[in-house]
């Protein structure tokens, strides 16, 4: 059986090539992951914008129907006040400060057995 004989320099060079190939592969996968994360974030923003515009169009459509056909003042008040209530709720949730640990103030959360978190 004739074996392959390699000098120590060739072995070190081979290992170095393998390390470089591994490092390039890892860098490429990290770059691809960052690009995918950025694309996902952009898609989420576009999706959110689309949903907001769709809901706004629905609110405007219903309000336009009620305003263009007057006759029931209670229905008019409800249709005009509902978007304001939703917007107030969303803004209140968005602007309410919470502690950095994510817990809410005023409530104590307990695990099973009475142990506090």
Could you walk me through the main structural features you see in this protein, from its secondary elements to its overall organization?
Helix 1 runs antiparallel to helix 2 (73-95). The longest helix has 61 residues, at 8-68. By secondary structure, the chain is an all-alpha fold. It has one domain. Helices cover 72% and strands 0% of the residues. It is elongated. The protein starts with 7 loop residues before the first helix and ends in a 22-residue tail after the last helix. It has helices at 8-68, 73-95. The chain crosses the membrane at residues 6-25, 45-67, 73-91. Keywords: Membrane, Transmembrane, Transmembrane helix.
Helix content range: over 70%
DSSP helical segment count: 2
User: Averaged pLDDT, please?
Assistant: 78
Main beta-sheet strand count, sense and barrel state: none
* Total strands: 0
Distance between the termini: 67 Å
Tell me the number of structural domains.
Answer: 1
Which value, in Å, is the CA radius of gyration? 31 Å
Q: Please tell me what the overall shape is.
A: elongated
Instruction: Give the helix/strand class.
Output: mainly alpha
**Parts with pLDDT < 50 across at least 5 consecutive residues:** none
Strand content: under 5%
Please provide the ordered H/E string of secondary-structure elements.
HH
TL;DR of this structure?
This protein is mainly α and 117 residues long. It has helices spanning 8-68, 73-95. The protein has one domain (10-97).
């Amino acid at each position: 059986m004739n074996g392959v004989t390699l000098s120590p320099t060739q072995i070190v060079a081979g290992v170095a090539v393998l390390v470089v190939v591994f490092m390039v592969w890892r860098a490429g996968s990290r770059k691809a992951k960052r690009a995918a994360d950025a694309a996902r974030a952009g898609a989420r923003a576009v999706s959110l914008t689309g949903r907001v515009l769709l809901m706004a169009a629905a609110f405007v459509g219903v309000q336009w129907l009620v305003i263009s056909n007057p006759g029931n003042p209670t229905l008019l008040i409800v249709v005009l006040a509902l978007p304001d209530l939703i917007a107030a709720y969303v803004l209140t949730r968005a602007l309410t400060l919470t502690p950095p640990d994510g817990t809410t103030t005023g409530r104590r959360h307990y695990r099973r057995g009475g142990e506090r978190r």
